[in-house]
Amino acid sequence: MVEKYDAIEQLLKAVHANELSVDDAKDQLNHYDELGFAKIDLHRTQRQGFPEVIFGEGKTKEQLHDIVHTLIKHDSIVLITRIDQEKADHITAKYDQLEYHETARIVSTPIKHIAKTNHYASIICAGTSDLPVAEEAAITAEVMGIQVQRFYDVGVSGIHRLFAHIESIRQSKVSVVVAGMEGALSSVVAGLVDHPVYAVPTSIGYGANLQGVTTLLSMVNSCAPGTSVLNIDNGFGGGYNAAMIINMIESH
């Protein structure tokens, strides 16, 4: 990920050498494609190491098509989250080089075409009902070039299932723990590993779960150090943060 700074460094050197004006440099750094309904940030990779991610929910299939067209035109990796089957079919019919991950509700550049890191992130899921959020995290990390190990259906109601995989989880550099109900799994995992844990509460649970609010509060009140809590159902955020950790490790 060190390469992400190369273009900006060259730009600054050109300004320093009076080969490029400050105004021209600002124009290049602020470059985006104006689509009327959206401004596509084409320098996100240079600043943050990964292109702009498209949030599919609330956008029409025509809008998504135009955004994808811009990204592909600029040789960008494509990652669309929260996209339903109908919109996904529309996009993949137009751009057959993309693939749809149904459980994660993600359209992306094919994962097999993306080089993977040496270190891996653990994506840990409490129950089958939490799978859409866990897969959103896993696919996001994989599209960002991260090797992922999945540990699913290992919730605290059958804690022995987690212990069967704990050594493999400990060998990862970061864990994303996805759970609903009371959200206890993230505290358990954080108490057993020496790396950062991202806890993702889901909206899965009975009435008093309050669509994930109870889970969120439980995770925020964790007594296990090293835990950071994402928003409800935010698998994307968990996967993205895990990818940042792995890329930081491998860039040094």
Describe this structure in words.
It is a single chain. By secondary structure, this protein is of the alpha/beta class. The protein folds into two domains: 32-110, no CATH class; 114-251, Rossmann fold (3-Layer(aba) Sandwich), CATH 3.40.50. The chain is built from eleven helices and eleven strands. The protein has helices at 6-16, 22-29, 44-48, 61-73, 85-94, 131-143, 160-163, 166-170, 185-190, 213-220, 235-250; strands at 32-34, 39-41, 54-55, 79-81, 99-101, 106-108, 120-125, 147-152, 174-179, 197-201, 227-229. A five-stranded parallel β-sheet has the order 8-7-9-10-11. A hairpin with a 4-residue loop joins strand 1 (32-34) and strand 2 (39-41). Helix 4 (61-73) packs parallel to helix 5 and helix 6 runs parallel beside helix 11. The mean pLDDT is 90.
Overview in brief:
One of its GO terms (molecular function) is hydrolase activity. This protein is an alpha/beta fold.
Low-confidence stretches: none
Average predicted local confidence, pLDDT: 90
Radius of gyration: 20 Å
Largest sheet: 5 strands, parallel
What's the β-strand tally? 11
- Strand arrangement within the widest β-sheet reads 8-7-9-10-11
Q: Could you tell me the strand content as a percent range? A: 15-25%
Derived structural class: alpha/beta
